[in-house]
Amino acid sequence: MAKLYKDLDHKDIFGVLAGLAQYYGIDRHNLRVIWIVITCLTGVLPGILVYMVAAVAIPEPPIKK
Question: For the chain, what are the domain ranges?
Answer without folding.
Answer: 16-57
